[in-house]
Design goal:
Pfam families: CTP_transf_like. By secondary structure, the protein is an alpha/beta fold. 41% of the residues lie in helices and 13% in strands. It has 18 helices and ten strands. It has a five-stranded parallel beta sheet with strand order 3-2-1-4-5.
């Protein structure tokens, strides 16, 4: 060992008198993959054990950064693109988004009867591309007990809500506690839509239908029908922008050998049945392309009181779904050879549950061409829910929803009267 020490003694002298120089040499050796035994044997210069106080090299421990978890809750009744955009914004404030879905009992106590069941609302929220976890039966107000559960059990860092006030029946702020402890963050409300607005559109369409009946009980037709409908229809306040579409888009195309599946429809009042059929369609390929029909096409095939949601509103709801890769905004009614070739479609699918006006018997099959090419498949719809059945729930409980909307309309008017600019998107 004495011979070895003498042989490499110049190294020890160098370390003592020129620490910075030898530190650089050791780093260079490590980068070049040279054996550290050359510089002194016995592994004494192994990089992990260099001491910071020697002035040679300081190894920093690579600590894994803890992911920020944020929480946002809501009723998510009659799920729309405003809900989706709120959750998209919430996700940008952290790494993982946990969403609480308020229980039926809490909604009844604070707002009135929900249109959709808990199961349906859970399916819609879970189907959004920005959601990582879901908590069922969340309370309407953030109580101290539930807040501690969020912080300790679910490891939540911040609680998120929109800039519009959320007041309890007694007039207090539902998020007061979260604000007091400094764990509250705010996002911008999405203008132009709300569940209250959608209920209003449905009730308005029912009124239109009743108003279009003449004294003998037969429906008006042609220009007279359209004129009455256009005057009394509930106008959407949505202002579509290219930025919003980009925010919702995956911004990725299919791979060179991807199996592209195509499904089309109105996707009006986006519901749990839509989520489930899109999920099943996506499993049949590598890329799911969804065609959303124009307002005119929907109106022609379902009646003049449809669609309830307009083309861009419906397109955003579809784009927000985690199973959807791309959307054709304003897809043709018939799936043509040109559409199949342009998008390199491998398979065209359609659900067993669909809504069409019974007066259109004998009409050309919109799937005739993909059927003739042997690339059409009929999918069993996982749920029987339809846009019409959702609307009928509101009509059946008409008085309750009129009362609920009147109450909510007051707070909405107050919000817009006092509205100021809020940064965000």
């Amino acid at each position: 060992m004495a011979i070895d020490y003498e042989t490499h003694g110049w190294i020890w002298d160098g370390v003592y008198y020129y620490p910075h120089l030898f530190g650089g040499l050791m780093l260079t050796a490590a980068l070049l993959g040279l054996s550290t035994s050359y510089f002194g044997g016995m592994g004494v210069f192994s990089l992990p054990y260099l001491r910071s106080d020697s002035g040679i090299f300081h190894k920093k421990k690579l600590e894994k950064k803890r992911r920020v978890r944020v929480y946002m809750d809501g009723c998510f009744d009659l799920m729309h693109y405003g809900h989706a955009n709120a959750l998209r914004q919430a996700k940008t404030l952290g790494d993982e988004l946990v969403v609480g879905v308020v229980s039926d009992e809490e909604i009844i106590a604070n707002k009135g009867p929900p249109v959709l069941s808990m199961e349906e609302r859970l399916a819609l929220v879970s189907g959004l591309k920005w959601v990582d976890e879901v908590i069922a039966n969340a309370p309407y107000a953030i109580t101290e007990q539930f807040m501690n559960r969020l912080f300790n059990e679910h490891k939540i860092d911040y609680i998120i809500h929109g800039d519009d006030p959320c007041l309890l029946p007694d007039g207090t702020d539902a998020y007061a506690l979260a604000k007091q402890v400094g764990r509250y963050k705010q996002i911008k409300r999405t203008e132009g839509v709300s569940s209250t607005d959608i209920v209003g559109r449905i009730l308005s369409s029912v009124k239109d239908t009743q108003g279009n009946e003449d004294n003998s009980g037969t429906s008006l037709s042609g220009d007279s029908h359209k004129a009455i409908q256009s005057k009394s229809s509930h106008v959407s306040q949505f202002l579509p922008t290219s930025r919003r579409i980009v925010q919702f888009s995956n911004c990725k195309g299919p791979g060179p050998n991807a199996r592209i599946v195509y499904i089309d429809g109105a996707f009006d009042l986006f519901h749990a049945g839509h989520v489930e059929i899109l999920k099943n369609a996506r499993q049949l390929g590598d890329f799911l392309l969804v065609g959303v029909h124009t307002d005119q096409v929907v109106s022609e095939h379902r009646g003049n009181h449809y669609p309830i949601m307009h083309l861009h509103e419906r397109s955003l709801s579809v784009l927000a779904c985690r199973y959807v890769d791309e959307v054709i905004i304003g897809a043709p009614w018939e799936v043509t050879k040109d559409v199949i070739t342009t998008f390199n479609i491998s398979l065209v699918v359609h659900g067993t549950v669909a809504e069409t006006n019974s007066s259109f018997t004998g009409e050309t099959d919109p799937y005739a061409i993909p059927k003739s090419m042997g690339i059409f498949r009929l999918l069993e719809s996982p749920k029987s829910i339809t846009t019409t059945s959702v609307a009928q729930r509101i009509v059946a409980n008409h008085e309750a929803y009129v009362k609920r909307n009147a109450k909510k309309a007051e707070s909405e008017k107050k919000y817009y009267d006092q509205k100021t600019f809020v940064s965000g998107d």
